[in-house]
């Protein structure tokens, strides 16, 4: 009896260790997937542990991302990068540091300059800006470094390249050159420069329409090709956007979302650990736990608090029989600009003591603009025109209030 009992205990311990090991491996793989989706790339030098974890799970990650979303996974001796191509581009997908279209132009031409460099090549800032200026002039574009705003745009582009690890600043500072054209700086080229821009599946000259540029792979004109394109477009939106409502799908993709709901949910949960709920307005995904990789709603910004408070107030008004507030047929709430400002002004008066100094001192118009921009960024609302804003039903899933008092 003792011998058999001891064997059972040992077997239970082995089973427990096996389950724990499997759980750790799954958690590690999901961490790799989240990093690939949310970082420009994972560098071996800056994060060797994560880089080697991706390398360990490379085959499974590569096959999953390619089969599900059409995203190629690139693995080199120095980095791991997932080429992510959005179906619907949004303003928040760009570089937060950039202020003008010119910033992106200079950024792209700087990458062109770096194509002619090899790893560890050193060059002066004055060399790159002159080369960029000449190359742009050949394309009919202007770069005049005597103009302060042009230098400022180029500085933002160079700083972004440095932040990405594409450029290594050896000596000097771009900001000094922005202030005075006579200043200079010394750079060194890293091996990452050739991996910044997306790789297209075919030669750019073969494309005949802009829409085709959003396809991450070349699809064959067969039933399998059509189905793969549908699957990729659906998963790409769920992977890259905070929320996609049924009304945002075109007639070709909505039936796929509705019929393949369980398939979609299972894949997102297994690889990313994300939970899903089917609501009247659409299929929504949630992170069950906080993550340092992705920015989640509500954010740490105070404007998220305002949006949550607004959601709570709208819910209360909708449940008051005496109130004239009502929902549209699709569950959205339409607000005039003046109504939104009025609601936020009352919230400011009641709860301003808990807000930041900037929000306390903002006008109702400024608060309304902040909230509308934040809701648009998180797919919680949309502007109909200059005077009307539609609060989408996704926001109705949220509610918030300060516990110290009731709202009149």
Task: Provide structural commentary.
With 408 residues, this protein is mostly helical. The protein has four domains: 19-82, no CATH class; 92-195, Arc Repressor Mutant, subunit A, CATH 1.10.10; 206-283, no CATH class; 302-397, Orthogonal Bundle (Arc Repressor Mutant, subunit A). The protein contains 14 helices and eleven strands. The protein has a three-stranded antiparallel β-sheet. Strands 4-6-5 form a three-stranded antiparallel β-sheet. The protein has a three-stranded antiparallel β-sheet with strand order 9-11-10.
Layout: helices, strands, pairs:
Elements: H1 2-38, E1 42-43, H2 48-56, H3 58-69, E2 73-75, E3 79-82, H4 101-115, E4 122-124, H5 125-138, H6 148-164, E5 167-172, H7 174-179, E6 185-189, H8 223-240, H9 254-259, H10 261-272, E7 275-279, E8 282-286, H11 302-318, E9 333-336, H12 337-351, H13 357-360, H14 364-377, E10 381-385, E11 388-391
Antiparallel strand pairs: 1-3, 2-3, 4-6, 5-6, 7-8, 9-11, 10-11
Helix pairs in contact: 1-2, 4-5, 4-6, 11-14, 12-14
Structure summarized in a few sentences:
By secondary structure, the chain is mainly alpha-helical. The protein is 48% helix and 11% strand.
Count of alpha and pi helical runs: 14
User: How is the main sheet built?
Assistant: 3 strands, antiparallel
Level-2 CATH architecture of the largest domain: Orthogonal Bundle
String of helices and strands: HEHHEEHEHHEHEHHHEEHEHHHEE
Residues in helices, as a percent range = 40-55%
**Overall domain count:** 4
Number of strands: 11
Which structural category do the helix and sheet elements fall into?
Answer: mainly alpha
Strand order of the largest sheet: 1-3-2
Strand content: 5-15%
Query: Class of the largest domain, according to the CATH hierarchy?
Result: Mainly Alpha
Coarse shape: globular
What is the terminal-to-terminal distance? 71 Å
Q: What average pLDDT do the residues reach?
A: 89
State the CATH topology of the largest domain.
Arc Repressor Mutant, subunit A
Kindly provide the radius of gyration, computed on alpha-carbon positions and rounded to a whole number of angstroms. Answer: 26 Å
List low-confidence stretches.
none
Pfam family, one: DUF2398
Organism: Cohnella fermenti
InterPro entries: CHP02678 (IPR013494)
Protein name: TIGR02678 family protein
